[in-house]
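Handoff note, outgoing to incoming analyst
You'll be picking up this chain. Sequence as last confirmed:
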Amino acid sequence: MKFYTQYLWFNTKTRQEFINITPQVEKAVENRGRFDFSGARNED
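Most recent structure output, in case you need it:
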């Protein structure tokens, strides 16, 4: 089974805060397709 992990870090003004992470998640999903899961970058 193959996995893709990308850690996202956020700085907030208060301890608990609602933030929209949709753009970051969309970019992570897009970047997932650019790797062949062996660590080598797949240049399509």
